[in-house]
Amino acid sequence: MIKLGLTGSIGMGKSTTASMFSARGVPVYDADAAVHQVYAPGGAAVKAVSEAFPDVLDAQGGIDRSKLRERVVGDSEAMKRLEQIIHPIVSGLQVSFLEKAVSQGAEIIVLDVPLLYETGGDKRVDYVVVVTAPEDVQRERVLARGQLTPAQLGEILTRQLPDKEKRQRADFVIDTSLGLEYAEAQVDAVLRTLRSDVATAGVWSEDRKG
Question: Selecting from 3.40.50.300, 3.30.420.10, 3.30.1520.10, 1.10.760.10, what CATH number does the domain 1-27+108-210 have?
Fold first, then answer.
């Protein structure tokens, strides 16, 4: 089974690209969705996060991500404390995803992880796809959502590896600034390459990493 890491800085179109892989029958682990799951009412992280950061619960008993963001963005110690809570929980969900994919005989799976390089996750996959777009497009997309201020965006970007470096380290690069049709063509090209590896070279993650 080939593990394909999918990453990209905020606002680059990573989630849209992940959905393209999913639409083509490739199992996708979405790290952001996993975080939403553990923050939801009754989620595995709610108790620990609300104890570490009082007053971040929403009316339904889940974690209000806007309130939590206000508590941690710009505070490196708070961010580190949050990551120490979240990462082990989310890692467990990823393990469950991989076990299910193996049991179903998946040849290729995608691990959609925003901070793949920053957390060393690139060492645990066989190939990496970086989703990119010009800086002005990225900024426009993010600020149009109305969830972050320019200052908050800048703070987030300081925690992410620069896009240029990600592209240099990637096995594949998908540019989302040229329209959906172009992005889909790039996804298809990536899958053709990987399926060719499966068919002709028998590439398995254990062989490549061992």
Answer: 3.40.50.300
